[in-house]
UniProtKB/TrEMBL annotation:
The lineage of its organism: Bacteria, Pseudomonadati, Bacteroidota, Flavobacteriia, Flavobacteriales. This is citrate synthase (unknown stereospecificity). Belongs to the citrate synthase family. Its EC number is 2.3.3.16. It comes from Schleiferia thermophila. The keyword Ribonucleoprotein does not apply.
Amino acid sequence: TDKLKEHFRSKIEPYNKKVKDFVAQYGDQKMGDYTISQVYQGMRGITGLVYETSKLDPEEGIRFRGYTIPELQAKLPKYPGGKQPLPEGLFYLLLMDELPDDDAVRRMSNNWVRRAQVPPHVFKVIDSLPQHAHPMTQFIAGITALRTESEFQKAYRQGIGKKDYWDPVYEDAMNLIARLPRVAAYIYRRTYRSGDHIEPDPRLDYSANFAHMLGFDNPEFYELMRLYLTIHADHEGGNVSAHAIRLVGSALSDPYLAFAAGMAGLAGPLHGLANQEVIRWVLDMKKELGGGLPTKEEIAEYVKKTLTEGKVVPGFGHAVLRKTDPRYMAQREFALEYMPHDPMFLLISRIYEVVPGILEATGKVKNPWPNVDAHSGQLLMYYGLVEYDFYTVLFGVSRALGTMASLIWDRALGFPIERPGSTTTDLLMKKFAKE
Ligand code: CMX
């Protein structure tokens, strides 16, 4: 038996009761007003979702089940001798709403190892794409191909009752998480290493095994992967990838389909693809300025040119955050510890000094500070993972942890199909612009 699943099962009844009682008593309380502008601005600032696993504060950044990133670095189990939290433990926290001990983390690790076998047709589907297909195209194709194994789809066809939906969703979510690193590593090796694939090593933890299959067997890189997979996991419910997964999952599309939808969103340049765009932009800058470490003045000129051309400065700004992203700071601290003299790190740091002032001076950018994507590429490049078109796939593997924990809860809580209303400008004008 799956002890983790039994432990989760024990949480469902009491939490359901808590939610039902709360809604019964307070369900008709108003949560706020919203304006016509907000409706035109992508529903910015309208709280319209309950998403239990994490919450984003504009000033303070993300909290996973109430814990900040530095708190997680202190409290979550680590690899012996390591400093970074193990993402197995983060997933346990997100799913169970309780901090894991070493034993729980080991159990999670082993559970995923048992589920990690990727069926051969998935590799065939990926191999049928041209080698130059963007890694996110290959990733989404691979995820969709994994869907043949969906337990939820099977159970639904067999007529499973609504209160049991969570069970096969849990199975799919766990299998998906367990299989993603292999799929991602396969894409990397086929695209950039002539298809010279590396078998998994089940003795390694989730992050180290992923690094190993990618071809980076360096204890520092293992630590980076543990940090990376932890901090990218979740960012509350309204961001494009998490929201797409929630939305598609609410139609009872199985977790593979829901996750593929989320990854299609993550592949957008204003969202997860920004991590590749940052490196592309920085390398273009270096090329144009003729190598070496550009001065602040040169960087400022380049930033202004980007803005004049009507482009965004990738890695800066956020729809919710109004301060430097703590995920940026966690990566900066990693760089300060392991590679303080890396030329690329020095450049990223200098960009951090220059960009906010310029964005602020535009008078329109609501958050001039860097987000998670401004830093992640530099760390990967330092260890030799230089193929930046691949970076969003790494983000995607991590994003499965938060969104799948959340999706299991969606079904455990019996959340209905999501269906907000919409209107037309014509109707709005008839109602509000009468004079
Ligand atoms: N560079 C240039 N202009 C920017 C900008 C940036 N980094 N960030 C915001 N702006 C502009 C917007 O394009 C908008 O311009 P218009 O009014 O001309 O359309 C204006 O400032 C106001 O936007 P905002 O309210 O500050 O930001 P939004 O909530 O609309 O968008 C985001 C947020 C992240 C899409 C935006 O800041 C952006 O495009 N940043 C660069 C891309 C990026 O780094 N994305 C990754 C985010 C993190 C993640 O999801 O991974």
